[in-house]
Amino acid sequence: MIEINKYGGQPPSVTDQATSIAKDLYEIGEIPPLGHVPKHMYAWVIRRERHGDPESAMQVEVVDTPSTGSEDALVMIMATGIGYNSIFASLGTPVSPFDVHGHPYHICGGEAAGVVWAIGDRVTKWKIGDEVVLHSHQDDGDDIECNGGDPTLSPSQRIWGYETPDGSFAQFARVQARQLLARPTHLSWEESACYTGTLAPAYRMLFGHPPHGLRPGQNVLVWGAAGGLGSMAVQLVRVAGANAIGIVSDEFKQDYVMSLGAKGVINRKEFECWGRLPDINDIEYSDYMKEVRRFGRAIWEITGKGNDVDIAFEHPGEMTFPVSCYVVKRGGMVVFCGGTSGYHFTMDARFVWMRQKRIQGSHFASPYQVWEANRLVVERRIDPCLSEAFTWSELPRAHTKMWRNQHQPGNMAVLVQASTTHSASKR
To answer: What percent of the chain has a predicted confidence (pLDDT) above 90?
Structure first.
């Protein structure tokens, strides 16, 4: 891990660091002449026979630098974010990426910051040398959902770096030009790289499912409030003029979540109502419900007696889902984008149908929603919450830390072509 320096001096630009020598392969951190595309590149590669923990599954290999289509861009990756999709890809569960794309090897990574290095002949908005951030939504652009509907519902929708073999854990990455966003120029490369994979899905969860879009004054229960998703959600709730009730697992994280703008924080370790719903006919169910109601009263201590949450922001899944379905208000929404604690979701359906609660799945975000979310970072209304930055060689270990829940609050990043932390040209 490297020390994060948010207050360093003006660093050199990428072009100032470029070598004048055209080669077929460059070492990590060595910058080619602007626009020169080497034949080969270094990448962290997964192969099917290596499925397992991240430090076994991911190995550095020399591979061909991807070519670009007419609507693509090739980006030199300066830094990349760390996310759960890369852990899933390493493990091969719940789905092996090889069963999706059929490529002989897989390069993870679905969020990054870098420099446009080559463009297709139909790309007009971007030029070589532009500094950009990347998001992971891809689609074919040729169906009704992509043209007036919701692109996230397109049959061709896919997550770059998980459902495609060509992610950001490499010196160069090929993306669709519509995956490019303007880089917030007040941020370093690693800060720019770490947030789209968490901010974008959080934005869609809170604002993308009408009529349950977040409104001022509403209350939102945010699970894992100190993590990547949670830290983005707490800030979005604050920006919207609503109230975030953050759930954390230890006292160390409470002050951090409050500093992001939460109205209150609850330590889940003080309660014992986690896991699958007990059989409703067992005596255990009665004891379980007493504990759930005690948890609900802890929420009321923050929101006021009788004020249940309007939205439960879910992603742990199996361990917390039954509680979310109970504590959300009548007509409220439980919205989830994953199941990091397990995929076997249970609930007492009586509380859901009789109180007309909505259960809503949510998957990443549309290109427009990502653009809206990124604008909040550009305007300095959302902080990326970078907590740890790692060197290229530490990339698998960073994933192990996340997998074992040993990482610091917020988001993580890895330097690729950026040689030092805080090496972006801030303006």
So the answer is: 90
**Separation between Cα atoms, residue 208 and residue 366, nearest integer Å:** 9
What confidence tier does 204 reach under pLDDT thresholds 50, 70, 90? Answer: very high
Which of these, 370, 335, 342, lies nearest to 198 by C-alpha position?
370
Domain ranges of the chain: 14-195+384-415, 200-361
CB 340 within 8 A of CB 315: yes
Of 403, 336, 321, 341, residue with least CA distance to 84: 403
CB atoms within 10 A of CB 364: 23
Answer whether 0.85 is exceeded by the pTM.
yes
Report CA-CA distances (Å) from 193 to 12, 43, 385. Answer: 18, 17, 11
Rounded (10°) angle between helices 84-91 and 395-403: 90
Average pLDDT over residues 183-207: 98
Domains 14-195+384-415 and 200-361 share a fold: no
3-state secondary structure of 420: coil
Q: Please, are residues 256 and 222 in contact by the beta-carbon 8 Å criterion?
A: no
Upstream peptide bond of 211 is cis (omega within 30 degrees of 0) = yes
Give the single-character DSSP code of 66.
Answer: P
Degrees to nearest 5, angle at CA 31 with 28 and 35: 130
Cα–Cα distance for residue pair 320/300, rounded to 1 Å: 18
> Rounded to 5 degrees, what angle do the CA atoms 230, 231, 235 make?
110
- CATH superfamily, domain 14-195+384-415, is Medium-chain alcohol dehydrogenases, catalytic domain (3.90.180.10)
Provide the CATH number for the domain formed by 200-361 in this structure: 3.40.50.720
What is the overall mean pLDDT for the chain?
94
Over residues 254-258, mean pLDDT: 97
Q: Which of 385, 389, 388 is nearest to 410 (CA)?
A: 385
Q: Which of 243, 238, 246, 244 is nearest to 382 (CA)?
A: 238
CA angle in degrees (0–180, nearest 5) for 339-175-81: 45
